[in-house]
Amino acid sequence: MNYKSVLTIAAAGAVLSLYASVPAPQVSAVSMVQNANGEAIINYSLSAANAVIALDIQTNATGSAWVSIGGEAVSSAWGDVWKVVKTGSHRIKWNGVSCWADNKIPASGIRAVVTAWALDNTPDYMVVDVSSSAQPNTQRYYPAADFLPGGLLANDDYRTTKLVMRKIMAKGVEWTMGSTTLETQRNGSREATHLVTLTNNYYIGVFEVTQAQWALIQTSNASPSQFTNPEFCAMRPVEHVCYNEIRISENVSSVSTDSDMFRNYSWPKDANPASFLGNLRRKTGIEDFDLPGEAQWEFAARAGNGVMKWGDGAGIQNSDKDENLDKLGRYQRNGGLVWNGSSYVKPEYSCGVENGTAIVGSYAPNNWGLYDMHGNVWEWCLDWHLADISGFDGKVNINLSDPANPISGTSDGYRIIRGGDWSSTADQSRPACRSRNSPNTRGDHIGFRVVCTAGLQ
Questions:
Q1: Has residue 404 been placed in a domain?
Q2: CA triple 438-444-449, angle to 5 deg
Q3: pLDDT for 9-35, tens place per residue?
Q4: Looking at residue 101, which CATH number applies to its domain?
Q5: CA 157: distance to chain centroid?
Q6: Do 82 and 165 belong together in one domain?
Q7: Whole-angstrom Cα distance, residue 384 to residue 457?
Q8: How far apart are CA 104 and CA 96, in angstroms?
Q9: What CATH number is attached to the domain comprising 237?
Q10: How far apart are CA 372 and CA 329, in angstroms?
Q11: Is the dihedral of CA 337, 340, 345, 346 positive or negative?
Q12: Which of 61, 96, 117 is the C-terminal boundary of a domain?
């Protein structure tokens, strides 16, 4: 190949394993040149351990410290990047000529930064293909949302044929679950505060599972939703799906809490292969996809904010209508309007329904980049419901999930739902609000999002 003699500064980095006993991957011998077609050719070597490889292009052309030219510009890179790579010598290609004058990458003031992420501490965003042609274990990883090819909200694939998962660093973090008396609309027995420490980092869906994604995975019941205008509803959350169909069985009418099928596939046992989660695991090769435990759900919904706060840090106003909630999610009192960044506008995709779900991602995200954690649809969680958790007050618990609280004795036979829905008032959409439903209940107000670890520790 005819390379132009454009030499560049190159750099490498590594993200350490969370376990000292696991060797940290090492990147070396990074070089970058531009070929006759204008493509940048980035070579590197990976040693010590397989890793997820990420790329950044940085410049100090203004004489200041090295800064990224932006994830959007770099995300088009292809080759041995954005995925798990084995040790050895590797190559990345990047067509970045549009970033530079005369379509020529400058000889100085630019560097390629190749980063190796340990497989138990992979990058912040994982994109999982669920299209009809998807192959197992082909997920892609990106260090930030602005590296997602095409843009998170601009690329409809992320709400139709791909799942975007956000890493939540929860392991060992002690935090307060529940609400205090400052939230005057709380249910004291169901929302008693208690200290929680989760045992694992995890990925959680940036969006609720949509109708299009459901149809690609659960083909035996591809169109369960009530809001089904074909022009707009592919990216609305799937609803009218019950806990049993998601995890236990596709034949939900025959499933009860007393049945052998329910016991055979009830968490922490594996999901039924015929269920949504069983199909998702098989399709993607990620074997621990599941519903979130409610402690995982609440930790993600709070996004680092404490009691009396919404997920973006704004205060809860203790009212059925809350101006701070208006921009975060579809609920009963914001009239079906959506926030466009500067004002509230009537959505074009209302499908003729004033009172109904919104396309996922229509409202502002929380501080961790998660959408619709408040409102839109209630979200199923793994846990059995306990009507009174005041006995946990002040104690440290991992979570409130099976098998610590089996159905016999301590639970009332219902599963937890969280987050409120399009018909809920503001108080029902609070991070601490706990509600319930029978595991075989369907409704146009109940959906879900998924979690997994995919190797995270």
A1: yes
A2: 75
A3: 578 887 767 666 678 999 999 999 999
A4: 2.60.40
A5: 15
A6: no
A7: 25
A8: 9
A9: 3.90.1580.10
A10: 5
A11: negative
A12: 117
- Residues 186 and 159 grouped into a single domain: yes
> Quick one: 329 and 231 in the same domain?
yes
Distance CA 272, CA 261 (A): 9
Kindly give, in sequence order, each residue whose CB lies less than 8 Å from that of residue 438, ignoring residues fewer than 6 positions away. 413, 414, 415
- What single letter denotes the amino acid at residue 248? I
> Are 208 and 283 part of one and the same domain?
yes
**Distance between CA atoms of residues 306 and 42, nearest Å:** 44
Strands 415-418 and 378-384, sheet pairing: antiparallel
Give dist(CA 228, CA 215) in Å, integer: 12
Q: Of 117, 140, 163, which marks where a domain is finished?
A: 117
**Within-domain flag for 45:** yes
Query: Residues of 2-31 as b/e, b for ≥16 C-beta within 10 angstroms?
Result: eeeebebbbebebbebeeeebebbbbeebe
Residue 457 is assigned to a structural domain of this protein: no
| Containing structural domain, residue 25 | 3-117
Clarify whether residues 187 and 63 are in a common domain. Answer: no
Q: What is the DSSP string of 229-290?
A: -TTTGGGSBP-S--HIIIII-S-GGG--TTSHHHHHHSTTSPPPTTSHHHHHHHHH--TT-B
Counted domains in the chain: 2
pLDDT digits (tens, 9 = 90+) for 51-96: 999 999 999 877 778 999 999 999 999 999 999 999 999 999 999 8
Are 73 and 175 in a shared domain? no
| More confidently predicted of 196 and 456 | 456
Instruction: Please tell me what DSSP assigns to residue 184.
Output: T
**Residue 103 is which amino acid?**
N
Confidence (pTM):
0.92
Please report where in the chains the tokens 């991602």 appear, as a residue. 361
